[in-house]
Design goal:
Blueprint (H helix, E strand, L loop, with lengths): L1 H18 L6 H33 L16
Length: about 70
């Protein structure tokens, strides 16, 4: 999970740097920090969802039906 947090933080900082307004005061700096924290949490939710979907897909059995053992026949 540590790598996903770092990746999310980097994505949020890059987003704020590219799309955020210019910072000219301490108030604007605080607002930018809050927007970056919110973007980090959103990016982390997306990363964790993608990871959970990937792990769920990897649990699926990709063998042909005839070669599976102990499967009930319909």
């Amino acid at each position: 999970m540590g790598f996903r947090i770092l990746l999310s933080l980097a994505a949020a900082i890059a987003y704020e740097w590219i799309a955020g307004p210019e910072v000219h005061s301490m108030m604007a700096l605080g607002s930018a920090a809050i927007r970056t924290a919110c973007a980090t949490m959103l990016a982390l939710v997306v990363a964790e969802t993608a990871h959970a979907l990937f792990r769920a897909v990897m649990t699926l059995d990709d063998r042909p039906f005839g070669s599976r053992q102990n499967t009930p026949q319909r």
